[in-house]
Structures are given as C-alpha cells and as structure tokens.
Design goal:
Length: 435
C-alpha cells in the first residue's frame, strides 16, 4: 500500500488492534458496516481471499462480529482476471453480510480456483467461509497442546555473500580444500521441494585461524559487513559487527522436521520431511527440532491438511504456513502409546515409499498427476489412522472435519469453569436451646 492508503486504513479503523495487518479492501467492509447499522440492508463484496485467512481473519472479523455482522452467503476462493492488456490475476472470495441472519445460508464451493461453483445450504458460515460457528483463531506464541515448538530457520541477511551455488562451492574447494569443512548444505523451501543443491559458508564456532588467510572467504565476509552497514535498519547495521555469521542463527543441535513456509495448494499434501542437523535450514522454512514420527504422521495427514486449507494465509494460491496461526493452534488429541506406535509405523511407511524413488524430488512425488501409487497408498493408510485417532468417521466430509476441529479448538481455548465454593455449613442448634 502507498502511504496515503495506509493512512486511510488507520482513519477507517481508528485505533483498533492489529489494523497494521489489514489489507486496504477491509476498509470497504468497515464503511459498509457504518452505513447499514440498524437497517435490513444486505451488502456483498468481491474481495481478495486474504481477508478470510491467517491473521487477518481474526483481526477483521473480531471487529465486525462484535458489531453483530452476520455472513449469510459466500463464495470460497476463485480466480479472477480482468480484460486489460496485462491481465491482473487475483484470488478472490465473495462475502454477503448484514445485521440480521437469514434462516438459510448459502456457501459456494470450488473444487479448484478455476472450476464452476457448487452451491450448498449450510447451518453456519464463519470468517473462514466454512460451515462452522464463528470461532476466532488468534495468533499464539506457544503451541496450544503439549507438542514440540516450531521455529523459523536461520536468516542469512548477508546480501547473498555467504550463500553458494554448486559451481561456486566447487571453485572455492578447488582453490583451497580446507574450506570444505565449513561449507554446509543450505536448504530453503525451493531447494527442499525441488531437490536443488545450494550451500552456505557456516563459520559458527569455527576458529578464525582456519579461514583468515583465505582471500575468497575474507572477500565474502567483507561484502557481508558492507551490505549490513548500508542498511537503513539499525538492527541490521548492528549485525555488521559479526559479518562471519548469519543474521539470525536458529540451527538446532539435532535432526529436525522441515515444513516449507510456502507451498502450492495444488498438492494434496504439503511436502515435509526430516533433515540431518548438518544441513542449514533457511528462514524460508519452518522446523521442529527433535520431532518424532508421530508428529510427522499427524502433520502430513489429511486431517491437518484440512486445518491448513482453512486457517493458513496465502501467497497467491499457495499456502503460507504459519507457526503462530496454523501450528500453534492446531487441536491435537491425546494418544495412547499404542496409538502413537501405530501412527509412527505408518508415517515411516510414507518415508519408505518416498525412498523408493531416490531420483525424484518432492515436487515430482507430490504432483497429483505423477504421485506414485505406492506413496499415495501409504498416505491414505496413514490418513485413515489419523481419522480414527480423532474419532472421525472415514466418510466424514471436509466441512464436517473442519467444523469438528474448530469445535475442539474452542474447547481447548475456553476459560476454565470456576466451581463456586460451597457455602459454610450452618451450625446445628442443640435441642432445648434458645430460639
């Protein structure tokens, strides 16, 4: 947004919490709310689908719902484009709302963003455009349930000077073989999904005596320092004091589960998997250090994919996985040791199925058109086990699953019921005593 558009948002919502996260289109919803107050007027807008996802869904709709706005019909995400020479392509939703509730709500679903809509009558219609009650999923810094924490990968903030292509790595090693000891594989979302190779110079806890005489390494360190010093951000300028290291180092001391922060929604499953601790994880990924096969099994399941679909932010039509919204709010269920063992066995079967195709990338394996039958079968078997873990019927619809997950989320976040203390016992009068 331009500066005047940002001012417009501020003036429209005044000092409402979180307005800095809202898209410009949300101003129209707020202005419409002001105009239709205490009337029977209905409003409908075509809007970018971002207002029904991620943080915006909670910030905007908390305000609208508090003013008694009700969603009466909606179209889920579809692709819109104009007739201009350079066609703009936007992923949109349509939301119809009013200050009163219709007895029949209509939801238009799309199998894909370019397919024709299918209308269904629903009991509920919430801000995620799901047939579920109005449940606001807030940003959360820690997981709601007792599971390992998810963190971002490490951010270089180096101007690209600590990162290496395979050719650059080969040249550095050719010039000085000793540098190979502090050159590590580096994996971002692109490298992880598409299997491409990338490397980084990793000097954390490396003695300066091992690289101080290497002109190539020193030249790159000097460029990192210069890049950071020229930044307009004070925090980045401060990082120039330690140019040998990444701007943010979150690399774990253990193997970890990696989840790409951005992944196309065309896949039935978000590709994720385990990575050795030697490989440096980029901040374009999320990771769970010391994750078990049980966590992997649940996160790669159909149940979690539905949660992603309705709560995740988007970049175009790609999922933008979020720690604070998606992972930390996911309503896990308690599992017995036997149930965990079952999920772990089936999760390992998914990894074993992948291993049968060592020359295929995750992009190859998870393309719906090219997904190997053995991998698909392994996932479907795991899906059934996770459905059973959640006590969901195997033929349960997507809308019913998301409604059940949101209901469980609501129960987990509800404030504890305060049991009033019993009144003090009345003293019994002795027989023959004074009245």
């Amino acid at each position: 947004m331009t500066s005047w558009q940002k001012d417009d948002v501020l003036n429209t919502f005044l000092r409402y919490r979180g307005i800095g996260e809202l898209d410009y289109v949300t101003c129209w919803f707020k202005k419409a709310l002001d105009y239709i107050k205490e009337t029977k007027i209905e409003v409908a807008f075509v809007a970018t689908n971002s207002i029904t996802q991620g943080e915006q869904a909670e910030i905007l709709w908390r305000h609208l719902f508090s003013r008694r706005i009700v969603i009466n019909f909606a179209h889920q995400t579809f692709k819109w484009w104009n007739e201009a020479k350079d066609k703009a392509q936007v992923y949109c939703v349509i939301i119809g709302f009013a200050m009163f509730e219709r007895s029949v709500k209509k939801l238009f679903r799309y199998d894909t963003p370019t397919s024709q809509p299918k209308m269904t009558k629903v009991q509920f219609l919430n801000q995620y455009l799901a047939d579920a009650p109005d449940i606001l999923i807030e940003s959360r810094s820690k997981p709601l349930c007792d599971v390992p924490e998810m963190v971002f990968g490490s951010m270089p903030n180096d101007g690209g000077h600590l990162l290496l292509t395979p050719q650059e790595r080969k040249q550095l090693v050719h010039n000085d073989e000793t540098v190979k000891d502090f050159i590590r594989p580096f994996v971002g979302a692109e490298e992880f999904i598409n299997g491409t190779k990338r490397y980084c110079i990793w000097l954390h806890d490396v003695s300066p005596s091992l690289y101080r005489k290497n002109r190539d390494i020193l030249s790159r360190i000097a460029k990192v320092k210069d890049h950071r010093q020229k930044s307009k951000r004070e925090t980045t300028k401060k990082l120039a004091e330690r140019p040998t290291e990444f701007g943010e180092n979150r690399q774990p001391d253990s193997n970890y589960l990696i989840i790409p922060s951005v992944s196309t929604s065309a896949r039935n499953y978000v590709p994720m998997g385990f990575v050795k601790k030697y490989t440096i994880c980029s901040n374009l990924n999320l990771m769970i250090p010391n994750a078990s096969l049980f966590e992997f099994g649940v996160l790669t399941s159909h149940v979690h994919m539905i949660w992603i679909k309705y709560t995740c932010g988007r970049l175009g039509n790609a999922y933008r996985y979020s720690t604070k919204i998606v992972y930390n709010n996911f309503p896990w269920v308690d599992a017995t040791d036997g149930q965990k063992k079952k999920i772990e066995t089936l999760a390992q079967a998914v990894l074993d199925a992948r291993a049968k195709f060592p020359n295929s990338s995750l992009a190859d394996l998870y393309d719906p058109l090219t997904m190997p039958p053995v991998l698909l079968k392994a996932h479907q078997t795991l899906d059934r086990a996770v459905m059973k873990l959640y006590k969901f019927k195997q033929d349960m619809s997507e809308s019913a699953i998301v409604a059940a997950l949101m209901e469980r989320y609501q129960k987990l976040t509800a404030p504890p019921t305060m049991i009033p203390e019993p009144p003090p016992a009345r003293k019994r009068r002795k027989k023959g005593g004074k009245k």
